[in-house]
Each structure stands twice: as structure tokens, then as C-alpha cells.
Design a protein that fits this description.
102 residues; 4 helices
Length: 102
């Protein structure tokens, strides 16, 4: 008989730095889209914080940071595409690609 569990937990993805949310918020505030993005991030963060309080898990907070990091990273490519005048009628909604905000 082994003392090892019969199932292995899923490996955790790269851990976020404790300051990741604050750094992300600073980046959002310095963006030219800050008027839209900061309130949306704060709303997502507040919901995730409430979820974390109920679930005793930091996963909802990490998910919000990762989604917003992806949005921020994709923004220059999206802006370049829109500025190019290409047809975007067959595009995919960003919420579908990154996961919707709750």
C-alpha cells in the first residue's frame, strides 16, 4: 500500500507575483483606454474577490489577472488590425476568445 494519493492534482500554471494585479492596474491606468478599462477591471476584480471570499481560493483573482493581461497584450495587435481597414466581419468576439467577464 502506498502513501501516495491515487490521483495527481493538475499542475498549477505559472504562479502570479503578489503584485501582479497592482502592476496590471497601473498599466491599464496608463493606457489611452483607461476610462473604459479601469472600471471594467475593477468590476471584474470585485466579483472575483467576492468569489474568493466564498470559495477560500485565489483562483478567481488569478483568472481575472490572466484574462486582463491577455487583453492588454492583444490590444496593440487589435488596434493595428482595426487601423489597417481590413474586413473584420468574420472575426471572433474577444470575450469568446478570452472568456467572458461575469
Amino acid at each position: 500500500m502506498s502513501a501516495q494519493p491515487d490521483h495527481a492534482p493538475a499542475p498549477a500554471s505559472a504562479a502570479l507575483a503578489p503584485t501582479a494585479a497592482a502592476q496590471l492596474l497601473a498599466q491599464l491606468r496608463s493606457s489611452h483606454r483607461a476610462a473604459m478599462w479601469v472600471p471594467a477591471f475593477e468590476q471584474d476584480w470585485a466579483r472575483a474577490l467576492e468569489d474568493s471570499r466564498h470559495s477560500y481560493s485565489l483562483s478567481p483573482l488569478h483568472d481575472v489577472v490572466r484574462v486582463w493581461q491577455a487583453r492588454l497584450a492583444a490590444a496593440p495587435a487589435v488596434e493595428a488590425f482595426l487601423a489597417s481597414g481590413r474586413d473584420d466581419s468574420e472575426g471572433v468576439d474577444l470575450a469568446d476568445a478570452l472568456g467572458s467577464r461575469r
